[in-house]
Amino acid sequence: MIVILLILFLIATGLLLFVWRKYKRLSRQLREMNLLHKENDPQECNDKLISLLRNYRHDWLNHLQVILGYVSLKKLDKISSYIMQVHEEARQHTLISKLKHKDLAVFLYMIPIEYPNIQIQLELANDLPEIDFREEGTWILQTLQSIFSLLQQQSIDQHYIYSSILSMNRLEKQIVVNIELEGNLTSYHESITQIGEQVKQQGGQFFIDLYNEQEFMMEFHFPIQARGVANVC
After folding, report:
1. What distance in Å separates the CA atoms of residue 124 and residue 108, rounded to the nearest whole number?
2. Which residues pair with 222 in a beta bridge?
3. Which residues cross the membrane (predicted)?
4. pTM score, two decimals?
């Protein structure tokens, strides 16, 4: 019994150290990214930074509670899979921080803050930080802002929380963005299509892969080095 308790204590201590290191690393990355935005309103940037860190601290504490709950129940088999889940989230945050387009990176970080009614799962390809799409990044950013603003408004109107997966990867000379949503977006189908048509008019591609009252899957293709627009905050 003493041996089991000792093992559980060591696991819990290790998890605490793991989460704390991840939190400190994220804090450092966000501070570094914030310094790259000196031309923006310092107070606004600081407020966003504090809100984001507070949100991630809350998430990490929730992770700790879940893991320690498994420890107390001696469900050691579930601890490993949950740690892998937490590790993948942290890895995605690291990929975001390395993106060449910092405004897009900040947007991805800020989704839980700016769009609280959208539960987001991010899936970025490992090679995305290596791609120089700083000009096209603003194009992608503006498109995502338009889509997520619609989703947030729809969620408020219907008192609904959307679950979504946002994936980004490279396909030859294009950045491909996939958005998968669970929920009814029939009333916003036309507005989303209009955003897609704007992308097509500017040299990109837009596809609706699945559309019904339960799911909505859309896909955007942004050619690299095909279009440059002014930088935005």
Report:
1. 11
2. 175
3. none
4. 0.74
